[in-house]
Amino acid sequence: MLPQDGIVRPEDVASVLPPEERLAQGPVAIAECFQNIPCDPCYHNCKQGAIQEFKEINDRPQIIFDKCNGCGTCMSRCPGLAIFVVDATFSDSEAIVKIPYEFLPIPDVNETVTAINRAGQAVGEARVVRVQNTKVQDRTVIVWLAVPKELMLEVRHFKVRGVQ
């Protein structure tokens, strides 16, 4: 459980996932913010109006999936790195998982990395498809990973090979 070991329970993850029908329509953000803390920059930076207005500053973000176009603007504004974008329509066998990343080294496009789940365990390989790194992102790089479709809701981080 999150407060004891830092690992989110499956039922908590299930409560923030978009429905299968929405996943099949293209990129969509998922806010895996599981603690009530005073934070709301995702809401203020979503130009699509896809993040429900907070009643209180300590509320957790609620994404209105039908309004989300998966642009990822919210990702680089989240200080907790708790928002991800998934795109199940990337190919027949792979999905894209866009991951906020604030470590070095920054991976290269086409590099193969080790895909990591929420518990910090390696779950497979992923290919870096794109690396977004602009000044407006304020040093939060967005790494696009191509992962097997069955891992798109599991992969939430990665490890660059050869880095200890």
Descriptive report:
With 164 residues, the protein is an alpha+beta fold. The chain is globular.
How is the main sheet built?
Answer: 7 strands, antiparallel
The largest sheet has its strands arranged as 1-2-3-6-5-4-7
Helix fraction, binned, reads 10-25%
Give the end-to-end Cα distance, rounded to a whole number of Å: 27 Å
| Total domain modules | 1
The total strand number stands at 7
Instruction: Round the mean pLDDT to the nearest integer and report it.
Output: 93
User: Given the helix and strand composition, which structural class is it?
Assistant: alpha+beta
Low-confidence stretches: none
* Order of H and E elements: HHHEHHEEEEEE
- Rounded to an integer in angstroms, the radius of gyration calculated over CA atoms is 15 Å
Strand content: 25-35%
Q: What's the overall geometry?
A: globular
Number of distinct helices? 5
InterPro entries: 4Fe4S_Fe-S-bd, 4Fe4S_Fe_S_CS
Keywords: Iron, Iron-sulfur, Metal-binding
Protein name: 4Fe-4S ferredoxin, iron-sulfur binding domain protein
Pfam families: Fer4
Please name the defining characteristics of this protein.
164 residues; alpha+beta; seven-stranded antiparallel β-sheet; iron-sulfur; metal-binding
Secondary-structure blueprint:
Blueprint: H1 2-5, H2 10-14, H3 20-23, E1 28-31, H4 41-45, H5 73-77, E2 83-87, E3 94-101, E4 112-116, E5 122-132, E6 141-148, E7 157-159
Antiparallel strand pairs: 1-2, 2-3, 3-6, 4-5, 4-7, 5-6
Nutshell version of this structure?
With 164 residues, this protein is an alpha+beta fold. The chain has helices at 2-5, 10-14, 20-23, 41-45, 73-77; strands spanning 28-31, 83-87, 94-101, 112-116, 122-132, 141-148, 157-159.
